[in-house]
Specification:
The structure holds two protein chains of two kinds.
Chain A lengths: L12 H29 L2 H8 L2 H34 E2 L3 H7 L2 H4 L2 H12 L6 H6 L8 H26 L2 H9 L4 H30 L2 H7 L9 H10 L3 H34 L1
Helix pairs in contact in A: 1-13, 3-8, 3-10, 6-8, 6-11, 8-10, 8-11, 9-10, 10-13, 12-13
Chain B lengths: L2 E2 L6 H4 L1 H33 L3 H10 L1 H34 L5 H13 L2 H12 L4 H8 L8 H12 L1 H14 L2 H8 L4 H12 L1 H17 L2 H7 L9 H10 L3 H31 L2
Helix pairs in contact in B: 2-15, 3-15, 4-8, 4-9, 4-12, 4-14, 6-8, 6-13, 8-12, 8-13, 9-12, 10-11, 12-15, 14-15
The chains are: A mainly alpha, B mainly alpha.
């Protein structure tokens, strides 16, 4: 293997690398490449015609703002939760810590029907919203609720290691130099945590953008109002409009690539912070 | 009972305010967790048993439910072992060797996480569907992939591919390669080195990676929804069966089947906690 950087006495590089590349290539990369190839067969006119359909534009708008809103909500509650789990010792801390992963482990369809039934006007939580005249189910707010649920673990799990690494001496230094609690939080702690916060936001946003199962039950899927992009793709497929589905999916894939790149850059920035 | 694990440097300046702040923070964040995550968990089981144990058992013993369980177990039974082999291979190559393009390969392994599950299903419809050259050829020879079990297996493989590899790569990087080098220099074969040196060192990572990929394989919805065609009793997995029941307003039955999936999720979390506890106890 000529692209090894240095010789190793360990065996099996060719075999393990060969299998890894073949598996990943056949299962993931080739099908994705085939989709991009299919999209490139469309001329610019046709491509734009599909994407500039008001219904598709509306779907992108709904998907983007609800995902951003959910990630923002998790920035607040996820940070507080990570702080409490890292800094405080209390009975049941381990249990609470394990619970954070539930949205990740629970099948999305189960999350979807559960949140819908909980937030329905007659549901355990929906009655309270009903009382103040707020409808959650079948509105964009419902989409945000589902996305907050599924993206919570990504924010908490990204912030926890960063908080664990945060040296209390930093705060001590700030305190001894006369900083108030709030000043220390804003000017000392927040800048150190910034890479982790941004990574958490990007991970949550990326996950929310592609999410399908937990959203379609609670959203009601009304065109122009509560239809998300993954659902638009499925609608196109069900109408045998393969070109339409391919064009929309390719744009979604481009979003994913950009986010993946951003996350990688943020993570290496974060790693260099902690090393330095 | 409540005490800061690391004493705050501000506590000596601000006394009582620290306790107030802690109470506020804990109430807000744990209240959020309880309402948003804990309550749904309780709710699933409450709904599942709302019509009594009899109705619960009937929902699960229903022939459609049983065939969905069978198909789900088939897909998971193929996906988990393949992910294990893929994960060990990928981790061996990435963690034990230095080569050009390592960063790119690591990113590509994560790719299925960033792609919407709907797109994961759709790419197989494009490549292997009836209208594609490959799909048309296979159909002419009597092989059905899309809207049949093989398509569901493929979609499951796509979405679960990274799980074992992601657990093992950082673990095996941490272990370094000295132990394996010693084993090889002492005359052990490649297979013995892997089986007796490398894998025992990362056994908890393997367990956790496998259970994560099992949970995801069983729980996948978007990707299998696209390739399944929703043929009752034939191409419905457990999650698709839950969707059907829910859309037919059979809420009790939907939540009964959903509670089985929830049990697996809870088991996943328990294994994770156990693995973490093990690795903290004996690093």
């Amino acid at each position: 293997m000529s692209f090894l950087k240095r010789h190793s006495v360990l065996p099996g590089f060719g075999l393990s690398m060969g299998f890894t590349l073949t598996y990943l290539g056949l299962l993931v990369l080739l099908p994705l490449a085939a989709m991009i190839l299919k999209a490139s067969e469309l001329d610019r006119q046709a491509f734009l015609h599909i994407l500039l359909d008001p219904r598709i534009i509306a779907a992108f708008r709904v998907s983007l703002w609800t995902s951003a809103a959910a990630a923002a909500v998790n920035m607040v509650f996820g940070s507080m939760l990570a702080w409490v789990l890292v800094r405080y010792e209390f009975p049941g801390r381990r249990f609470c810590d394990a619970m954070v992963d539930l949205p990740f482990a629970l099948p999305t369809a189960v999350s979807g029907i559960t949140l819908t039934a909980l937030f329905a006007p007659t549901g355990w939580l929906g009655v309270w919203f009903e009382r103040v005249g707020v409808q959650v189910v079948f509105t964009p707010l419902g989409i945000v609720v589902a996305l907050v649920f599924i993206s919570l673990p990504f924010v908490v799990r990204t912030l926890q290691p960063a908080l664990e690494d945060l040296d209390p001496e930093l705060e001590e230094a700030a305190a001894s130099l006369g900083a108030g609690r709030w000043q220390a939080l804003v000017r000392v702690i927040a800048p150190v945590l910034l890479p982790a916060l941004l990574t958490g936001f990007a991970l949550a946003f990326a996950r929310a953008l592609g999410e399908y199962g937990s959203v379609i039950f609670i959203s009601g899927n009304m065109p122009m109002k509560t239809e998300i992009v993954p659902l638009s793709i499925i609608m196109k497929l069900e109408q045998f409009d393969v070109a339409g589905a391919t064009a929309i999916a390719t744009v979604m894939l481009a979003f994913s690539f950009v986010l993946l790149l951003a996350i990688n850059i943020l993570q290496s920035w974060s790693a260099s912070r902690h090393a330095g | 009972m409540l005490a800061d694990r690391k004493p705050s440097p501000f506590s000596r300046f601000s006394g009582g305010w620290v306790a107030v702040r802690r109470t506020l923070l804990m109430t807000a964040s744990l209240g959020f967790l309880g309402l948003f995550v804990g309550l749904p968990l309780v709710f699933i089981f409450a709904k599942a048993f709302s019509a009594g144990l009899q109705a619960y058992l009937e929902a699960i013993h229903n022939p459609l439910a049983l065939s969905a369980i069978g198909l789900t177990l088939l897909a998971a039974g193929i996906a988990v072992p393949l992910n294990l082999v893929f994960g060990v291979c990928a981790a061996w190559a990435i963690a034990k060797f230095d080569f050009f393009g390592k960063g790119v390969l690591t990113t590509l392994i994560d790719l299925p996480f960033s792609v919407s599950p709907v797109i994961a299903g759709m790419v197989y419809v494009l490549v292997l569907g009836m209208r594609s050259p490959i799909g048309g050829w296979m159909d002419a020879h009597g092989v059905k992939v899309i809207f049949a079990a093989p398509g569901i297996v493929l979609a499951t493989l796509f979405v679960t591919a990274p799980f074992v590899a992601r657990e093992l790569i950082p673990l095996m990087q941490e272990q370094g390669e000295e132990e394996e080098e010693a084993a090889i220099l002492l005359g052990a074969g490649a297979w013995d080195t892997l089986r007796r040196v490398t894998l025992p060192n990362v056994r908890w990572g393997i367990l956790y990676g496998c259970i994560l990929s099992l949970a995801r394989a069983v729980g996948e919805f978007g990707a299998v929804s696209v390739v399944s065609g929703h043929i009752r009793g034939r191409t419905n997995t457990l999650t698709l069966h839950v969707e059907n029941l829910y859309n037919e307003y059979q809420f009790g039955a939907a939540f009964a089947v959903a509670s089985l999936l929830t049990l697996l999720a809870v088991l996943t979390l328990a294994v994770k906690s156990y693995v973490e506890w093990r690795s903290e106890a004996a690093p």
